[in-house]
Amino acid sequence: MCSLTFFVLTIIISCQKNDEKKAVSIIWKNKKAVAVSIPNQLAEGTKPISVRVDASYDNELTIFGDIEKQEDRLIFTPLIPFTRGLTYEIFEGEKSIAQFSIPQPDASDAPKLTAIFPTQDTVPENLLKVYLQFSQPMREGRSAQHVALLDDQADTVKNAFLDLQPELWNEDRTQLTLWLDPGRIKRDLQPNKKLGAPMLKNRKYSIIISQHWKDVDGSALAKSYTKTFVTTIRDSLSPVPESWKINPPKSGTLSALMIDFQEPLDHGLLDEAFEITHEDGSKIAGEWQFVREETRELFIPKDHWKPGTYHLKVDARLEDLAANNVNRPFDRDITKGEEQKGPQAFVLVNFQVK
User: Fold this and answer.
1) What are the helix (H) ranges across 133-254?
2) Given strand 274-278, what is the order of strands in its sheet?
3) Are residues 300 and 342 in the same domain?
4) Which of 82, 51, 184 is nearest to 128 (CA)?
5) Does 13 fall in a domain?
6) What is the pLDDT of residues 196-252, one digit of tens each?
7) How many Å is the Cα radius of gyration of the chain?
8) Taking 50 as the threshold, does the pLDDT of residue 15 lie above it?
9) Domain carrying residue 261
């Protein structure tokens, strides 16, 4: 009886090992399904191997990738990692030989919306750009499906955002720039005449970001997000760096230089629009911090301030929330014949450290 039990147990273990050898396995790297391992026993070896999305999802879309032959198996590596939540089928020629599924991501891995710019709760009615920052790289080409502008009656403002393809993502796809349709914002253009401006003054609006937006790994946002703000009158004036209030630090200290813009500025260029040099021509190293809802900036030097004259160099492309840059307003009324200053690459503002 004991011998028979041992014999049956041996057969079960042997079968389990054989099944494991024939099983398809997913290869993971940094929480991404980067390849699939296909045992040689599954294929006859006479026809090419392909991997396709299960027909119930996308009509058996073939996945492009590379196949590497190893001693007892084939390794299929797709051009981009397999998508979470999808099922795939492995074919030899036109014969289906195996199927595998990529599990849904853990809830703890869900991406988050970390910031919406402008951070102000009050913006001009001709606001041009909105910036969305995410904790993880997001899927491109989906903003029209997942971002909406609602008016004070909770009605969707149709065609509020410009449908740009490709979308304006930063390099690592964690920040998206959305443009409210400039054709509707600029007065006397046809879109403005036909549809009107996307937003009107003295109204409340909300930007809604859907929780169904997924990152590149297939994880949806942890929740939906809402940014509510009130609109004021049009802003048709350019920023004037010479009018900014500068609070210079004391020499011999590492105190921050404080600059008050007197208005919120566009988030897009803030990180690269400023430079400080000493009167001897040396560039001052340090860190910029933008506070008070993009209305002020602090510059914290790496080394102690020396006494003397300093120059704040401002990139003339710098814009306010209505896209008026240092050189010219975004929506200028040419019928008024106002004198326009010539374009300049930058503006210098001097300050003293004592």
Assistant:
1) 143-146, 182-185, 190-195
2) 274-278, 308-315, 346-353
3) yes
4) 184
5) no
6) 999 999 999 999 999 999 998 888 999 999 999 999 999 999 999 999 999 999 999
7) 29
8) no
9) 241-353
